[in-house]
Amino acid sequence: MANLQTSYLGLKLRNPIIVSSSALTNSVDKIKKLEKKGAGAVVLKSLFEEQINYETSSLLKHRRYPEAADYILHYAKENSLREYLSLVTEAKAAVSIPVIASINCVSEKDWTSYAKDFEEAGADALELNIHIVVSDRDTKSVDVEQKYIDILKKVKQKINIPIAAKIGYHFTNIGHIVDRLNAYGAEGVVLFNRFYEPDIDIDKMKFTSAEIFSSPSDIRHSLRWVGILSDLIPNVEISASTGVHDGEAAIKMLLAGAKTVQVCSTLYKNGIDELTKIIQEISDWMDKKNYERVADFRGIMSYKDIKDPSIYERAQFMKYFSSVE
Fold it and tell me: CA separation (Å) from 148 to 53, 155, 167, 190, 308?
């Protein structure tokens, strides 16, 4: 029978399937149910810097005393922090699987100091969920990338638990930023983050949110870079995310070199029983292929281990479109 045990960020997991940061992991009761369904680990719903700042700004719009701004912002931060620390502590006491804290950062200010509180509350690791939207055309790309490094460096100074940086794919050179993140202390990276995108309702003439869930086709964004970076930067552990909706997709990510695979959208769409199904599909496939352990097949379809590495590098549909009339 297949042994799905693996490791990630120095943590022992019973299988490589992690439930990613979302409302699915925002309460102890939900986390306990995910453990029963087979989750190898959970990433807690992020503590969002932007959200707290936005909510505080909304409150201040209705206040007559602008000097109260600092007090209200401090109170909002501390209240959110207390609630989050309670979730970390209670989740750790309630389940045996690794509990990974998550903070969504856009600055390297006191938000990153909260990481120490997460560690003291019992978090097994920390996922730095970083995304910076740049609307100033004079901002240089190198300066934006440096912000990622600055956030990581400040957090690394505070804690001893392992760190994974969760990033998007909107970089000119993804390998370069991942290499730098690893060099400055990130033991892992999550490829890739899925961000809020705006949309417009043309009937109601107002802004709405674009589709919040991933689709199975979104795996293409992450599969390419998991396959490339697992070889180019072997010291960093990759957790594959976005577009994983079934066991087949999870297996593809592991074959490309991912240490673990994160799931979310499929659990929203199909229920958390899908978690058990995905894990069973991996186990059945391993038995069929006579693989005893995940390590036996992880990375065998990665960049350096295939005959034609250009498959991962190709950007045009040359073969397809040249034969279609």
Answer: 19, 11, 9, 14, 33
Side-chain-side CA neighbours of 223 within 13 Å: the count stands at: 17
CB proximity list for 256: less than 8 A, separation 6 or greater: 223, 226, 227, 230, 240, 299, 301, 302
* Residue ranges making up the domain that contains 170: 6-323
CA-CA distance, 55 to 81, in Å (whole number)? 15
pLDDT given at position 61 = 54
* pTM of this structure: 0.88
Closest by CA to 188, choosing from 168, 209, 165, 204, is 165
**What is the number of domains present in the chain?**
1
Task: Please give the Cα distance from 100 to 82 (Å, whole number).
Answer: 17
Q: Which residues of 22-32 are buried (b: 16+ CB within 10 A; e: fewer)?
A: bebbbebebbe
Measured CA to CA, the distance from residue 130 to residue 107 in angstroms comes to: 9
CA dihedral 166, 237, 230, 242 (to 10 degrees): -40
CATH of the domain at 238: 3.20.20.70
Query: Would 128 be classed as within a structural domain?
Result: yes
Question: What digits encode the pLDDT tens for the residues 221-277?
Answer: 899 999 999 999 999 999 999 999 999 999 999 999 999 999 999 999 999 999 999
Question: What are the structure tokens assigned to 123, written together?
Answer: 């978090």
CB 35 within 8 A of CB 97: yes
Average pLDDT over residues 81-98: 96
Is 1 inside any structural domain?
no
